[in-house]
């Protein structure tokens, strides 16, 4: 999807550009994920994962949980596996 007239907002809550709007230069699949590219105020071309922008469709978990759960079940299970692996190696 290449649409130079389209703009997007950075939605990642911890990104320094959070809440800012930029004009989309290109949206493409790079390095294993979808990325959007835009020009920063200083003229540098910057790329971000599309998931960190308003161009990403809403996450179904976030919509359904409506703020009632801070963590997804799959993420907690992955965290438990990581902790178990660290403990089995003796890293505590």
Quick tags:
92 residues, alpha+beta, SH3 type barrels, three-stranded antiparallel beta sheet
Describe the structure.
This protein is of the alpha+beta class. The chain folds into two domains: 57 residues, SH3 type barrels, CATH 2.30.30; 35 residues. The chain contains two helices and five strands. A three-stranded antiparallel sheet has the order 3-4-5, with no helix packed on it. Strands 1-2 form a two-stranded antiparallel ribbon. The longest helix is centred in the C-terminal third of the chain and has 17 residues. The radius of gyration is 17 Å and the shape is elongated.
Q: Please provide the count of β strands.
A: 5
CATH topology title of the largest domain: SH3 type barrels
Counting structural domains, the number is 2
Question: What would you call the shape?
Answer: elongated
CATH A-level architecture of the largest domain: Roll
Q: How many DSSP helices?
A: 2
- Order of helix and strand elements from N to C terminus: EEEEEHH
Secondary-structure content class: alpha+beta
Text of the CATH class of the largest domain: Mainly Beta
Distance between the termini: 46 Å
Helix content: 25-40%
Strand order of the largest sheet: 3-4-5
Tell me about the largest β-sheet.
Answer: 3 strands, antiparallel
Provide the residue-averaged pLDDT.
87
SSE map:
Layout: E1 7-9, E2 21-23, E3 26-30, E4 33-39, E5 45-49, H1 60-65, H2 73-89
